[in-house]
Write a structure and sequence with these properties.
The protein is an alpha+beta fold. The protein is about 35% helix and about 45% strand. It contains nine helices and 22 strands. It has a 22-stranded antiparallel β-sheet that branches. β21 and β22 form a beta hairpin. α4 crosses α5 and α7 packs across α8. It is globular and about 95 Å long.
Amino acid sequence: RSFMNKSAGVLLGIVVAIGAISAGGAWYTGTKIEGVLNNAVTNANKELQTAMAGSNGTASLELVSLERHTFTSTAHYRLKGEGELFGDAPVELLFVDHIEHGPLPFSRLVSLKWLPVMATSNYELEKNPATEKWFAATKGAAPLKGVTNIGYDESTTSTIDLLPLETALDAQSSLKFSGLTMNISASAQAQKVKADGYMDSLKLVTVAEDQAPVQIELNGLTLASNLAKSSFGYYTGANTLELTNSKTTFGTKQSVLGVKGFEMKNLTEESGSNASGRADYKVDEVTLNDKKIGSANLAFSLKNLDIPSTMSLMQIYQTKLQPYEKAAAEAAEAGLPAPELNLTEAESAQVKADLQKLLAAGPQVALENLSLKTANGESRANLVIDLTKPQSMDLPPDQLAKQLIALLDLNIVVSKPMLIDLLSVQAQLDGQTDAKAIVDQASGAADMFSGMAVGSQLATVEGTNVVTKLHYAANQVEFNGQKMTVEQFVAFLMSKFAGVTQVQ
């Protein structure tokens, strides 16, 4: 019995000690949480400003109030957005945040997550005039909610949920949405961020301008990001978006365009003061009215982009060019002459210096691959342009263009069998039903295209492909195997297009 009493006493002592430590931690967290939230809001506003750069809009987050207690706090936030991205009128979203203080928030204790955290934040969207319809679509439940655990090193792990909804958007439009869940983890000050998300389905029903019904269905959307903040303050890393399939029903005949296996990947990297990036798009299968058309690929890349000069040019674009574009558009609407773009001497000199620095790094822009493959053929194109710093930025335009481009390489391959496949699909869309007539007509059109391209000397024929090749470097052009100077090439093109204009 004595042993049992001692054991009970020890156990009670441990429970009291844990309770005291937890209460002490909660009090400490309660005194510190305001500073943490203010830091988070400040950092969020910096990121919003960066994200909105070049978008003709602004967005900001504000900590409206904080009620602090021993074990919990309640915070209210306001997110404001205005500009083209948010439509005609400014948008205001309100959030309430129920914060459980650490080190062992109750919700983590009951879910057996006993790793100490500073706080657990449970936030959700609040109803206001801008979000009333959204709340109605989720039958009064907060349509957006999330849980964030804040570590003592101010790292965070979050889960964000957009709730399922089904609603009429107007008399002719409706939306059905399965909901979307995002998981996000970030180090202190969000120096590193990882995120992944999934949406099962979305269905939008509406009408086009010609009053034909339109139905868009998306299934199996996956999102993933792995990013790190660069030394210049923006994020580099990888983003991926995958869509299992989509179906779009459109037109008076209610044709159905299907896409399976869509994938988009982009990657940005930094090396010293230079950035590089690429974007890859892939579609495994495109169908029309359940008939397979083919697959497609697209890849862009950018290399040797000088970061400081690019950021400087972006700042001048935001402060000078964007307001000018807006003023010019307003003047055009009012039937007034366009205003003048006024750059100070210092700004003009800065732009010129930035452009020279940008070009001195030898940036390269490339369309690495554009391809479309059908049952009987594949067409593809690629283009590489290397830029370099000219002797002077004040040269005449033709001389400047020659000196700006260090290298240009263009290759285009159009497959005649692929053209026939596409033209046959178009004929079926137009309502033609005679299979032999469709193929004959498509073959005739493909032959005519090939004959015109070769006859104009803009392409050559290699087997069943119509091919164009252009290579330029050091004032020397090679076009479809023929060498000439830039001047001769320009004269050749002008003669061809002048002939086209006269025919028209």
